[in-house]
């Protein structure tokens, strides 16, 4: 099977600082690196390193050829990753000594993806394939409808979080992944707890405490503990978790087994500095 990912591709500009700045404060960074990132690119790399075939749907700008080439080098299929005029997406990341981060995003070419680009890509998909998307691109509603019409299993990582964006695609979803804060915000916005959502499987990540899986059809609620590690950098850990989860399901694993694999991948990821470039392989788990 294949995974079709409508996802962002960003240049991650990471600055190491002793602590996060307060309003009006100027800090000197003591280290810096540039790497491949974006929630979409991270998930595509994670899916591939977990062992799945991944087709990335998206766009980079005139300065983004190196990112497209790097994704291809990592094994992600980039035939549906367009080169467009203007800048690529960028993320400026402040990372402190405790492993916490603050991030500023420039959308760039990620918001210039068109419905025609989505349709051209999904015309190659087959029923039973999996589609996944996040909130860092354009045409998400169209992608959800097109994926459902093509007979694909549809997963959605609701980040950066917008309750209205979730509500707009909820009827099409098979799997929803969000963190605990996002789950609380969604419940407040919709007046429905996660257990009442019209989505077969809801997964709520809990950081170092693990994750919770809700199967709404059966009412099953299970919590999975995360491996205990010392974090170095939490950037990209959630994307790694989601990519491994979707790849596991794509490969026929039961939800429990896919979640356990995803937990290991996310835990290993936070012990590394960087994003897409350092996502672990399945053998490393």
UniProtKB/TrEMBL annotation:
The active site is at 239 (proton acceptor). It catalyses: D-ribose + ATP = D-ribose 5-phosphate + ADP + H(+). Its cofactor is Mg(2+). Activated by a monovalent cation that binds near, but not in, the active site. The most likely occupant of the site in vivo is potassium. Ion binding induces a conformational change that may alter substrate affinity. Its main location: cytoplasm. GO terms for molecular function: ATP binding; metal ion binding; ribokinase activity. It is an enzyme of class 2 (transferase). Its EC number is 2.7.1.15. GO terms for biological process: D-ribose catabolic process. K(+) binds at residues 233, 235, 269, 272, 274. Residues 6-281 form the Carbohydrate kinase PfkB domain. Substrate binds at residues 10-12, 38-42, 136, 239. Pathway: Carbohydrate metabolism; D-ribose degradation; D-ribose 5-phosphate from beta-D-ribopyranose: step 2/2. It comes from the Bacteria. Pfam families: PfkB. ATP binds at residues 179, 205-210, 238-239. GO terms for cellular component: cytoplasm. CDD domains: ribokinase. Requires a divalent cation, most likely magnesium in vivo, as an electrophilic catalyst to aid phosphoryl group transfer. It is the chelate of the metal and the nucleotide that is the actual substrate. Keywords: ATP-binding, Carbohydrate metabolism, Cytoplasm, Kinase, Magnesium, Metal-binding, Nucleotide-binding, Potassium, Transferase. Catalyzes the phosphorylation of ribose at O-5 in a reaction requiring ATP and magnesium. The resulting D-ribose-5-phosphate can then be used either for sythesis of nucleotides, histidine, and tryptophan, or as a component of the pentose phosphate pathway. Homodimer. Belongs to the carbohydrate kinase PfkB family. Ribokinase subfamily. This is Ribokinase. It comes from Pseudooceanicola sediminis. The lineage of its organism: Bacteria, Pseudomonadati, Pseudomonadota, Alphaproteobacteria, Rhodobacterales. The gene is rbsK.
């Amino acid at each position: 099977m294949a995974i079709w990912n409508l996802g962002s591709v960003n240049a991650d500009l990471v600055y190491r600082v002793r602590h996060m700045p307060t309003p009006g404060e100027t800090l000197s960074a003591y280290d810096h690196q540039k790497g491949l990132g974006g929630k979409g690119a991270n998930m595509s790399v994670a899916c591939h390193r977990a062992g799945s075939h991944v087709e990335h749907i998206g766009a980079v700008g005139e300065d983004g050829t190196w990112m497209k080439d790097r994704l291809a080098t990592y094994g992600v299929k980039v035939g549906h990753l367009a080169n467009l005029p203007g800048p690529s997406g960028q993320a400026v990341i402040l990372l402190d000594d405790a492993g916490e981060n603050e991030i500023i995003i420039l959308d760039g070419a990620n918001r210039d993806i068109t419905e025609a680009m989505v349709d051209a890509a999904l015309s190659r998909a087959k029923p039973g394939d999996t589609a996944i998307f996040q909130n860092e691109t354009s045409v998400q509603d169209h992608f959800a409808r097109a994926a459902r019409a093509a007979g694909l299993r549809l997963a959605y990582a609701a980040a950066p979080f917008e309750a209205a964006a979730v509500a707009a695609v909820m009827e099409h979803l098979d799997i929803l992944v969000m963190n605990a804060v996002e789950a609380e915000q969604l419940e407040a916005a919709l007046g429905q707890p996660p257990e009442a959502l019209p989505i077969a499987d809801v997964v709520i990540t809990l950081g170092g405490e693990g994750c919770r899986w809700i199967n709404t059809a059966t009412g099953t609620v299970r919590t999975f503990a995360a491996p205990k590690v010392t974090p170095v950098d939490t950037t990209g850990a959630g994307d790694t978790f989601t990519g491994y989860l979707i790849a596991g399901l794509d490969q026929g694993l039961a939800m429990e087994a896919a979640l356990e694999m995803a937990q290991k991948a996310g835990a290993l990821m936070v012990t590394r500095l960087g994003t897409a470039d350092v996502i672990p392989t399945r053998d490393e788990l």
